[in-house]
Amino acid sequence: KQLLQSQKMEAIGTLAGGIAHDFNNILTSIINSTELAIGDIDPESQTARDLERVLKAARRGGRVVKQILAFSKPSQEGFRPTNLTAVITEVVGLMEISLPGNIEMRSHISPNIGCILADPTQIYQAVMNLCTNAFQALREHGGTLHIRLEDVSLAREEAKPLNLEAGEYIQLTVADNGPGIAPSILDKIFDPFFSTKDKTEGTGLGLTVVHGIVKAHQGGLRVDSDEGQGTAFKLYFPRVSWTDEIPEQQKIFFGSRGGRILFVEDDEDQLNTTPRILENVGYSVTALGLPQEALDLVMADPDRFELLITDYDMPAINGVELIQRIHAVNPRLPSILISGREDAIKAAHAIPSIRRVFIKPYDTIDLTFTINTILEED
């Protein structure tokens, strides 16, 4: 049975990886084209507001793709000091407009909440999975879904059952006053494929994913449930004392130093949109659809470009191979790898010239800030 489950996971992973790659390419094109369109119209117009909704929906679609891939081991790539207030506020807003009338949404976010070292997308995914679980428990008879975010101090006796050290933590609680979980199955709810739902309603991976994400963040997880009273999932994440917030005035100057960029992408839509976005903030971009053309260009003039940005999945020569070949010609040329697949992160680990890996759909503000940082360093 375990072997069959393992084979099933592997098959699903292969399928999901292919779907994610194709869908992420589509989403990246939608996001890039929408951002360009917004820049060409009156920001106060109704059309601009409509396009902002398109942009928000596309970015949410990107998060959905990450959920499709969530049963694989969560990566610690992309971890940064994060204040969870914005993440939880977004979840609460989405749940408020999504829940039926018989379910009340309540939230409490403590002011001046501390930071944790986290991937915000993974945290969002974990909270959404817990909210979905609560919704399914409440939908028949209604009730209250409550999310709390607060700073807590755990003494040694409190931390030990969670396999944590005593100290300062951020506690995230998702609770409902539904039917609760039977004691006989409470120790099974995090097992892969375990579910009390109808087979058409879920994979049985939702809580498994939550458990994996919490562990990847060096956190702890506790479940309190009373039959007939409800269930509370309490997630604990170690606090950190610093923040990575980028001042707004710093964002304004993205691209102001200029820079010569070689951009390689075999997807025609992205080949037409991403370079335009980069040119709009001051970069000089040479965009090519074939890796061999890019290699020939660098071989002809090794010092022509200051940065290489390339897609990972391309015919004949993939992005990592292209970076390695160009590195042999110009070892000083830094590079950024872009991909719709999470495994690009692993493939890039051994290549020192790869400064950053972006998984599609990526945030263009983050991309331009990263470009500016790399060019300033070099």
Question: Keywords, please?
Answer:
single chain; 378 residues; Rossmann fold; Heat Shock Protein 90; 12 helices; 5-stranded parallel beta sheet; alpha/beta; 7-stranded mixed beta sheet
Q: Do you know the CATH topology of the largest domain?
A: Heat Shock Protein 90
Q: Give the C-alpha Rg.
A: 23 Å
* Shape label: elongated
Which structural class should the secondary elements be placed in?
alpha/beta
CATH class group of the largest domain: Alpha Beta
Report the span from N to C terminus: 54 Å
* Number of individual domains: 3
Contiguous uncertain segments of 5+ residues: 243-256
Q: How do the SSEs run, as a string of H and E?
A: HHEHEEHEHEHEEHEHEHEHEHEH
Q: Can you give the helix content as a percent range?
A: 40-55%
Query: What's the count of strands?
Result: 12
DSSP summary: helix tally: 12
Quick one: biggest sheet? Answer: 7 strands, mixed
Task: Just name the CATH architecture of the largest domain.
Answer: 2-Layer Sandwich
β content, as a range?
Answer: 15-25%
Name the CATH superfamily assignment of the largest domain: Histidine kinase-like ATPase, C-terminal domain
